[in-house]
Amino acid sequence: MASALRSEFSHLLKCSTTSQRMTVRWKKKPPKWCDPADISWAAPLLEKMQLKEQKGSDDVEQPPAMLHMVTRVRKLGGRPHWEKHTIKALGLDKVKKYEPVVHKNTPNVNHLLSKVKHLIKVVPVTFPDGLPVDESDFHHSILHNDGHLEVKKRLSPLEQQLTSKEDDKKELWKMDDDTVDKSTRKVLERFAMSREYFPAKYVYKYNQDGKEHRYHGNQNIAGDREWY
């Protein structure tokens, strides 16, 4: 009996080991994106975070902006009366929606802005072209949506020694290129090129001009009557 049990147990053990080997043999390896130990997919994100931290450490603290560009982004209908009074104090009640209004960066103005910060958008005004020097610079300046003011400064003329003109009368008759182009274009549009060399010769056969003294009775027009 003991020998028979041993042989049966050994046979079952062999079968179990072979089945285990077969399962391990045909088992596939997990892909890289499914392997928890593989984090190569996160390498670009980690690199971006490192660059962002490095850039933040290298940035120099910029001074606060002198001016703020404030725009109203929400309607005033149904808002409380104290918010409407604040909007009126900031000068945003009579302007259209998304129309910018410039304010100084002062504590009083910032206190008003904080009360209605959910109704407005505040953008600091920057001067990449420098501050305007003359009052005429403001006429040609452009305030963009991102807050930077494009200043088109007036060019100061170079100091040149003006020579005295010998004959001022001749200067009056000088023509520039624009005047010449305009006059020649007018001649072409009127089909009047070389008109002075080919004058028109009109022949009036039926007294269209009312000058009957030119007729002598030889054109079959009342030839039997006396012309006077």
From TrEMBL:
The keyword Cell division does not apply. InterPro entries: Ribo_uL30_ferredoxin-like_sf, Ribosomal_uL30_bac-type, Ribosomal_uL30_ferredoxin-like. Residues 70-120 form the Large ribosomal subunit protein uL30-like ferredoxin-like fold domain. The keyword Mitochondrion applies. CDD domains: Ribosomal_L30. Keywords: Mitochondrion, Ribonucleoprotein, Ribosomal protein, Transit peptide. GO terms for cellular component: large ribosomal subunit; mitochondrial inner membrane. One of its GO terms (biological process) is translation. Its main location: mitochondrion. One of its GO terms (molecular function) is structural constituent of ribosome. It comes from the Eukaryota. It is found in: Mitochondrion. PANTHER family: LARGE RIBOSOMAL SUBUNIT PROTEIN UL30M, MITOCHONDRIAL RIBOSOMAL PROTEIN L30. Belongs to the universal ribosomal protein uL30 family. This is Large ribosomal subunit protein uL30m. It comes from Littorina saxatilis.
